[in-house]
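The records we work with from here on pair a chain with its fold. Taken together, the tokens spell out the fold as the letters spell out the chain. The record below shows the convention in full.
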Amino acid sequence: MGKNVLVIEDEPIIAEMISIILEIQGLNVISLSDTGRARDKLLNKEVNLVLLDLNLSGEGGEEFCGYIKGHDDLKDIPVILVSANIDIEQIKEQCGANDIIRKPFNIDHFMEKVSYYVETIV
């Protein structure tokens, strides 16, 4: 399997920007705006890393992160929260996310964080 990054972001411009940055780095990107289809991708073992916005319509990012980290078959998939939420550090601890990237972000900092997790993908 290639290195597949699932981006869950409901702002189309931000989702497109993140996808372009990741694709330039040679990563396969699955970009979704909701968690419903994301569950299918995760359960079908199509994902190696999740970049997750917190403020989604419907199920929020915090709840979805908790679902991933609470599911035996999914808990080892790294989750990076990507949000402008001022409580992002506390939310990371509560839901068990691996890391955070604060919006707005510096592209070099963004890729540094993503690359760290991508390098661990077998």
In short: The chain has a mean pLDDT of 95.
